[in-house]
Amino acid sequence: MVAANAAAAETRVFIIANQADGYGVDQCLASGEKCGASAARSYCQSRDFAQASSYHRVDADEITGSVPKTGAHCTHGNCDQYVAITCQR
After folding, report:
1. Less CB within 10 Å around the terminal CB: N or C of the chain?
2. Which range of residues forms the domain containing residue 80?
3. Residue 83 pLDDT
C-alpha cells in the first residue's frame, strides 16, 4: 500500500526554454500571467502528469548541466530565459 501512495505522489520538475513553442510559454509562464496556469497544466498533461503544482522563471545560472546560450537558434530574443514547471501525478 505504501508503494501505491508513493507512485501517486510522484513529482517532477521540467526546465523548458522560454521560447519553446506550443504551450504559450513565452507569453504566459515566464511573465507570470494568469494564463500560465493553463499552459503549465497542458504541459504536464502532455507528459502524463495530472497537474502543475507550480511554475516560475529560473536563471540559467540556477540550472545544473549544459544550457545553450543566445545564438543562431534564438528567434525571439529571450533564449537565455527558462521556466521551471513542477508536475504531479
Report:
1. N
2. 2-64+74-88
3. 84
Is 41 part of a structural domain of the chain? yes
Residue 11 falls inside a structural domain: yes
The answer to whether residue 78 is domain-embedded is: yes
Q: The C-alpha cell of 72 is what?
A: 543562431
Q: What is the pLDDT of residue 37?
A: 84
Tell me the pLDDT of the chain (89 aa) as tens digits: 455 555 557 999 998 876 655 555 666 666 666 778 888 898 899 999 999 999 888 887 788 776 655 544 555 554 567 888 999 99
User: In the chain, how many domains are there?
Assistant: 1
Q: Is residue 81 in some structural domain? A: yes
43 secondary structure, DSSP code? H
Amino acid occupying residue 69 = K
The one-letter amino acid at 71: G
